Amino acid sequence: MKRAALSIAIASTLTAVPAVTMAADPGAENESPYLAPDGSWITLSGKVTSTTADTFMLDYGKGLVTVEMDDWDWFEENGEVLPGDNVTVYGEVDDDTFEGAKVEASSVYVESLGTYFYASAMDEETFNDLDVAPTIDPGQVIVTGTVTGETGSEFTIDSGAQQMTVDTALMAYDPMDDEGYQQIEEGDLVSVTGDLEDDTFETTEVMADTVVTLEDDSAS
């Protein structure tokens, strides 16, 4: 699995380090795929209502649309459990005159799994520009990078600009345990939102509110 360090994005009340921006225009969120031109890129958020072997039906608030998940290893293994989940899809509109518009997924964020799946190397750079990135309060930070070590409720992360410690003790669930889909391990690419603190040893620490795993499915 490819693990590329991305960037550290600091809230406006702190010194800002430029975030990575994506090459393609994601389009308007929840724009109707039936009105978008064939081949255009679109972002849709909503609830999964049903699945097939290689598609799922998404209720994006203005209607239903089929999302194509051809050759996604993750979907083949886990797709049947998705109905009822909230997801965010970034993909290309496939408007076949005889079949109606569909969306060919390039990346999918599954809220219940705390995981963002992307299907190409480019997509790992889109995280901070999509709505899967949570809204942060003044003074909070978003740090994206590679996990370099773990112990107890803490793990270290290399953002490319610096290394820091992430403490998950105040989160609503434990991403460090061996339960559930998300289990933070060394080598994982993650995006962390939380409060920045300096401890007595002058090392930077983030008290995490959210941890999202970024998982490359491009091998499929």
Describe the protein:
This is Bacterial OB fold (BOF) protein. By secondary structure, the protein is mainly beta. The chain folds into 2 domains: 8-21 and 134-216, OB fold (Dihydrolipoamide Acetyltransferase, E2P), CATH 2.40.50.140; 41-125, Bacterial OB-fold (OB fold (Dihydrolipoamide Acetyltransferase, E2P), Beta Barrel), CATH 2.40.50.200. It contains 1 helix and 12 strands; from the N terminus they run ββββαββββββββ. Strands 1, 2, 3, 4, 5, 6, 7, 8, 9, 10, 11 and 12 form a 12-stranded mixed sheet that branches. It starts with 7 loop residues before the first strand and ends with a strand. 34% of the residues are buried. Residues 1-28 and 121-125 have low confidence and may be disordered.
In short:
The protein is an all-beta fold and 220 residues long. The chain contains one helix and twelve strands; from the N terminus they run ββββαββββββββ.
Keywords:
single chain; 220 residues; mainly beta; OB fold (Dihydrolipoamide Acetyltransferase, E2P); 2 domains; twelve-stranded mixed sheet
The poorly predicted ranges are 1-28, 121-125
Q: Return the CATH topology of the largest domain.
A: OB fold (Dihydrolipoamide Acetyltransferase, E2P)
The whole-number mean of residue pLDDT values reads 76
Query: What is the H level of CATH, i.e. the homologous superfamily of the largest domain?
Result: Nucleic acid-binding proteins
Which structural class fits the helix and strand makeup? mainly beta
| Radius of gyration from the alpha-carbon trace, in angstroms | 18 Å
Distance between the termini: 11 Å
Q: Could you spell the SSE succession in H and E letters?
A: EEEEHEEEEEEEE
Shape: elongated
Helix percentage range: under 10%
Q: What count of helical segments does DSSP give?
A: 1
**Strand percentage:** 35-45%
Total domain count? 2
Major β-sheet annotation: 12 strands, mixed
**Tally of strands:** 12
Query: Mind telling me which CATH architecture of the largest domain this is?
Result: Beta Barrel
In the CATH hierarchy, what is the class of the largest domain?
Mainly Beta
